[in-house]
TrEMBL record:
It holds the Pfam family FMN_bind. Residues 76-166 form the FMN-binding domain. The keyword Phosphoprotein applies. InterPro entries: FMN-bd, Ion_transpt_RnfG/RsxG. One of its GO terms (molecular function) is FMN binding. The keyword Nucleotidyltransferase does not apply. SMART domains: FMN_bind. GO terms for cellular component: plasma membrane. It comes from the Bacteria. Keywords: Electron transport, Flavoprotein, FMN, Phosphoprotein, Transport. The lineage of its organism: Bacteria, Pseudomonadati, Bacteroidota, Flavobacteriia, Flavobacteriales. This is FMN-binding domain-containing protein. It comes from Aquaticitalea lipolytica. GO terms for biological process: electron transport chain.
Length: 175
């Protein structure tokens, strides 16, 4: 019986994880397993009504907000998006608990020659514990990095937009 349940859960996991490109999905899966301390989980797109999504500071589509479940219980949410750097964009992940508190922030893909320091665990730790009621400010509540000014400002703005969006979604009982 357990094997059958495992097979069903694994199949659901595979079929429900088409929202992200394979190279990003693999990185996201690893972070979810490490952050939530789970081996098997369900990763399902959380669709936000287009009318609501169009009025949010952050982008919400079918491929960037996901509900994470373990044994049919919601354990958190994953938000995957892009933010601009000097000449390109970088992909980032924010993992949230069920109270919409940031559990982890991670740079998934950084495409510039300079500024990659924003991907360091130490720098990204400053986002852990942030809530929909927090406001981040460059060089005040968010530490600046020499040589990565544009990327740091961009990540700060992206996190602020996400936190504001979460506050709106929460107030509308969507999350």
């Amino acid at each position: 019986m357990k094997f059958k349940q495992f097979t069903i859960l694994l199949t659901a996991f595979v079929f429900l994880s088409f929202g992200l490109p394979k190279h990003l999905q693999k990185k996201v899966d690893k972070e979810i397993k490490d952050t939530y301390n789970v081996e098997v989980f369900e990763f399902k797109s959380k669709i936000i009504d287009a009318k609501v999504a169009s009025n949010l500071p952050s982008k919400f589509g079918s491929d960037n907000l996901f509900e994470i479940k373990s044994k049919t219980k919601t354990i958190g949410y994953a938000y995957v998006s892009k933010a601009p750097s000097k000449t390109d964009e970088f992909d980032y992940l924010v993992l949230l608990d069920t109270d919409l508190i940031v559990k982890k922030a991670k740079i998934l893909v950084y495409r510039e020659d300079y500024g990659g320091e924003i991907g360091s665990k130490r720098w990204l730790q400053q986002f852990i514990g942030k809530t929909q009621n927090d406001e981040l400010r460059y060089n005040d509540t968010v530490v600046a990095i020499s040589g990565a000014t544009i990327s740091v400002r961009s990540m700060t703005n992206a996190m602020n937009d996400l936190l504001k969006s979460l506050k709106i979604l929460h107030s509308k009982n969507i999350l």
